[in-house]
Amino acid sequence: MSSPTTARADDSSAPAAGGPSDTAPGTPGADAGRTLARCRALVRPSLSAAIGRLHPWTGEMAAFSFGWCEAGGAPRDPSSEGKGVRQALAVLCAEAVGAPGESAVAGAVAVELVHAFSLMHDDIMDGDGTRRRRAAVWKAYGTGPAVLAGDALLALAVQTLAEAPGPRTGAVVGRLSETLGELVRGQAEDLLFESRPWTGAEAVRPEEYRSMAELKTGTLLGCAAALGALLGGAPARTVTALDLAGRHLGVGFQAVDDLLGIWGDPEVTGKPVYSDLRQHKKTYPVLAALAADTVHAGDLLALLTSSRPLDGERAKRAAGLVEACGGRSATVAEARRHLDAARTCLRSVPLAPGAAREMEGLLGFLLHRTV
Predict the structure, then answer these.
(1) How many CA atoms lie within 13 A of 161 on its CB side?
(2) Of 15, 66, 193, 269, which has the most beta carbons under 10 Å away?
């Protein structure tokens, strides 16, 4: 599979200020919101039915992870659910190749299950006790139960695709299996980054971080797009183009998340301001700042390697140094490049105009979350 770095568009058409922008007609947020809601409504019955096949205990943890219930099983306001980006990509890609959205429902369910599984296990490995402004599954139910629930979701995802009707069952199961391997490699790289130094020959380079982001974030978005196209009967060239568009979206999405992890509004992100800096996370803005040959890079390195906690005014100063070194602008540019590249991929193959417009609008909306 081609890497996102092989299909980048020229940056000259990117907006001049702020962050990545959507040029689709209408209000991007409202249009994208309607698209996401429509796809969720289509997929939710099958996703609920799949969760209903699990053991009641793991099923409850799964429902908790999706925001459907409280710990203990009490129903929860459905408006608290996630956006459902991956399931929407699967549905839209099926529609884009001329098939009904219903043909992609099994793929949409599978990628949502894999996404939930990966979040459960990532939170345990990273020690993150909160997810979407409430307790992570392992905090609410315990580490062992959360591992078990994640395993159950992974097995259910494979089973869902294996039981999907049609002539491409083997192809879609194979695509999901390949994706799972890439997810594991991406998580392994991310964990290993924690033990590497901030500078020197062993330091994490921005291009290494980009490759990790493609594996950890981009590969599942690409899989969602590819599954929708495969289940919709698309030819190989179209499947490849849509997969690559999803991968670009994932890398751009991660870049914007990295911006929000430092400068995001706590009311929006659910995390304290400068959260990623406080945790000494090796994110793209910091790595790009340290890689820049500027007079402020040394001061930033001193803060990052100090034994003193990076909080309060020290965190604020570190954020200012990252920006002064160009880390913030480099990350905005990274997100723009991948947004443009994703659009280029979509426009490289014949797609149904309506679904293609919805996908382009969704791309812009998801990457237009800068602060």
Answers:
(1) 29
(2) 66
DSSP 69: B
> What amino acid is encoded at 305 in this protein?
T
Contact by Cβ (8 Å): 61, 141? yes
Query: In Å, what is the CA distance from 301 to each residue of 199, 209, 255, 325?
Result: 8, 18, 21, 11
CA–CA separation, 284 vs 30, rounded Å?
29
Query: Which two three-digit tokens encode residue 114?
Result: 């894999």
Amino acid letter, 350: P
The CA-atom distances, in angstroms, between 297 and each of 216, 293, 320, 339 are: 28, 7, 11, 28
pTM score of the predicted model: 0.89
DSSP assigned state of 135: E
**Coil vs helix vs strand at 131:** strand
Q: Which tokens is 94 given?
A: 């099926």
Instruction: Please state, in angstroms and as integers, the Cα–Cα distance from residue 241 to each residue in 97, 158, 175, 190, 238, following that order.
Output: 12, 24, 14, 27, 5
Tell which residue, 92, 168, 106, 10, has the closest CA to residue 351.
92
Query: Could you state, in order of their start, the residue ranges of all structural domains in the chain?
Result: 23-367
Report the chain's C-alpha Rg in angstroms: 20
Residues 6+ apart with CB under 8 A from 23: 364
H/E stretch holding 134: strand 134-135
Q: Give the separation between CA 10 and CA 363, rounded to whole angstroms.
A: 17
36, 88 contact by CB (below 8 A): yes
Report CA-CA distances (Å) from 73 to 66, 142, 334.
Answer: 12, 15, 41
Write out pLDDT tens, residues 69-87.
999 999 987 666 778 999 9
Torsion angle, CA of 62/51/184/134, rounded to 10 degrees?
-20
What is the percentage of the chain residues whose pLDDT exceeds 90? 79
CB 177 within 8 A of CB 140: no
pLDDT digits (tens, 9 = 90+) for 25-40: 445 577 899 999 999 9
Q: Do β-strands 134-135 and 130-131 pair in parallel, antiparallel, or remain unpaired?
A: antiparallel
